[in-house]
Amino acid sequence: MDFFLVGGSIRDAVFGKASSDHDFVVVNATEEQLLDLGLKKVGKAFPVFITDDGTEIAMARRENSTGEGYNDFEVETDGVTLDEDLLRRDFTINACASAVVNGGANTDELICAHPMSRYDLAHRILRVVDADRFKEDPLRILRGLRFAARHNLFIEPETKALFRQMIEANCLAHLPKERIWKEIEKAASAENFWKFISLCGKFNLFPEISGMKGVRQPKKYHPEGDVLNHTVLALKHYEEVELPQYGWNSGDRVIQSLCILCHDMGKRLTLSERGNLHGHESDVRDLLSFVERIGAPKSVRVATQFCAEQHHRVHGMFVRRANRLALWLEEHNQFNNQAIVNALCMTCVSDANARLQKVPYLQMNMLAEAVSQTRKLSPEVVEAIKETDNIQTKKQLIHKSNVEKVGKILARYLQIQKDSNA
Length: 422
Known about the structure:
The chain is an alpha+beta fold. The chain is 53% helix and 10% strand. A hairpin with a 7-residue loop joins strand 6 and strand 7.
């Protein structure tokens, strides 16, 4: 029996990327032989075995379609060669294998089943292995766009045409939403998510994203162009400037990226129905349609809607009175959720900098400080609250304290702004 490292880990090694995607394939082996090695069989649809340290090893296999569904296929493992296993993969850059050397790939001695694999790896080209087989699982389009964005790949013309043909046939409509979300989550937690969204717009993959194309904005405030271009630039700023500075974990990064993506989705319908963009932050129809379409979890739905609805209030913090700001912070329970507060901060600073010229954005710092301070009660306020049973009186005491805190914070940031403009 022979063991090989295959697929994504080979691709990532050639492109100089770290990879958590380590797929192993074994050929010339039977299930009984693998069980005799102490491996545990875990695969249901096809034979996959797991080692004591959690490494998964699949038997080389053929897959023969038996229907239109993702799970409608028969699996054969008897006598399957390594080339046969590799040629069932989606893209030529993934149809490669390597002998295992020190636990990793030996990129100097690749085994490539497709005649274009070496060329496409060397020239960073995304090419489908087999168009008919590719159509069996439309999710591969999302995977392809994710690869193209992350690795800066050129999508060759026939593959582009195949993508467009499948998308025009509404190929994603019947996919389980949890599979779509898994791909979106991977894209949003990886580098170049902004390129991924740009590609989704070019291929009209999601109507809510492509719908932002051509939605005009006042040039005075948005010299960068339409809403989609603005959104892509916001995501680019977030990834290149804010993310390195704050080092958010993968979960926060996904939520923040989706909030930035969705923050201006209301502009399309607002412009078409009202003739202007006033109040677009309150129109969340496209946003809710999108998060439903991609199967986003409730935490993402709540965060994206809140950030879309509130980002203009953050932009205008410096022209509001302390009393109104305190009431705003008290009215919304979402300010008790630090992940949502962080997402709102990242959405607003990225929105403000998604233009041709970068700007300092003090509102983000002020918001973070005001939220932190208004979530704390001084010992004096705590004692005063204890002395009354009247709920309204308690709320008034808390509000009065919050107004004082917000007023001091606001005055300080207005002075910082004045000094910076002097």
